[in-house]
Design a protein that fits this description.
single chain; mainly alpha; 3 helices; 77% helix; CLEC7A; coiled coil; CTDL_fold; C-type lectin domain-containing protein
């Protein structure tokens, strides 16, 4: 009986000891898992914080890009309008310049936008027409002496 008691004590000791070992094992495992999870949570929090910073930075850059795009569009519109204005002024100036340069030679006389050349040389009608054509002009036909006098008086 004594042996039985000792055996039971031993069994009880083993069961208790085994339970303690199991509890210790599980506690150790839980602690290790807790440390691992905490470490992972910290890493994820760091990555999340970094991604938030990146998102904020990208959002800020997008706002800057939108502002610059709007300014560029305004500049393009202004430049386009200025170009149109300058083209119109250029056309006006070209027209004015042409009217000024039409009669740049001394022997030509200007009346408005038209220039007239009075020749003192005696030539046939055909020779006069050829001469005018060679100058890039055309021969003016005056039908009467009155029209001739009127034409001359315009230039005096």
């Amino acid at each position: 009986m004594q042996h039985l008691k000792e055996f039971l004590k031993l069994c009880l000791y083993i069961v208790n000891h085994s339970f303690v070992l199991k509890v210790t094992f599980w506690c150790s495992t839980i602690v290790n898992l807790t440390v691992f999870i905490s470490h992972q949570a910290n890493r994820w929090q760091e990555k999340f914080t970094q991604q938030q910073e990146i998102l904020e930075n990208l959002t800020h850059q997008q706002e800057i890009l939108e502002n610059l795009t709007q300014k560029l569009q305004e500049i393009q519109e202004k430049t386009s309008q200025e170009k149109e204005d300058l083209q119109a002024k250029n056309a006006e100036l070209s027209k004015s310049l042409q009217s000024l340069q039409i009669c740049s030679k001394d022997e030509w006389m200007q009346n408005g936008e038209d220039c007239y050349y009075f020749s003192t040389k005696i030539k046939t009608w055909f020779e006069c027409k050829e001469y005018c054509s060679s100058l890039g002009s055309r021969l003016l036909k005056i039908d009467s002496k009155e029209e001739l006098v009127e034409s001359i008086l315009l230039f005096i």
